[in-house]
Design a protein that fits this description.
With 315 residues, the protein is of the alpha+beta class. The chain has 8 helices and 13 strands.
Length: 315
Amino acid sequence: MHVAEAERVIGSRFRWICDGMENEVKHGFGTAPNAEFVIDPEGKVVIRRVWSDPIELRADLEKLIGPAENSTVVEDLDLPEIEPAGKVARGIVPRVEMPGWMQAMVLEPVDDGKQPYYVKLRAEATPEFLEGEADTGQVYLGFHLDPLHHVHWNNNAPALEFELEAPEGIQTSPEKGQGPTVTEAADADPREFLVDVVASGDRAPLELSVRYFACDDDNTFCIPVTQRYRIHLEGNRDGGSALGRKMAEEEAMTVEGMLANFKEMDRDSDGRITRDELPGPFKSRFDMMDSNGDGFADETEQQMAAERIVQMVGG
């Protein structure tokens, strides 16, 4: 479904690689979150980069096949303007204020799989809690409509509800939650919650159940759905990070904003960042920052990394 939607929206003619639910392709290529590989016609990997960089990619391609006579820019592609999926209101439900850097958690659906997950759960926690450095922390629960299923929230129906069941030695507050009251008849905004967690014993997983109404955009069905997850109190190496969301919230997708965040990560305030100082989801990006491979990202390397990230994101 993802490939079909991408081909429909982008109109591409190249071959896609679609990973499985267990991320076999990603793991086979090193598990880096934004890696780059150039593969020749014989199937040999001729370029491998831990962190993709468009400028370096162009230089690589020029070495392999020669420079382009006329470099393509975005304006040359005549790409169609694609409206956001869905036919209902967006941006009307306030987003939660995140406590800081958050790390994705391992999720395990425990249903029979016969009913689609119209709503996807995103669970994150404060890195210090997941890494065992603190007994207390916060967990973010975000329930996001899957655009591939073309559904929305019907706000005339009961709001989404969730319930957490914690094992012995773990406390959560609140244990239950309900989505907001929305005056619009329908919307597609996520339903988000922050939960305080205290772990004084073994860190067995949390059990979560969620109830909601899934209503399709063509108004052909609106059905009650109950689904369950097991949330493991450990970091998910495939879960990515909330860097983009945090930056957007703080309007900090600038070089200065990135440097301020690097300073926040520098726990001993010595002006250098080590891999161990990075929050869990960013450890895999350390090689991109440590350009000379000495085990530290000094202020010069932080400046270079900040400029590169802002350039790639388009800030």
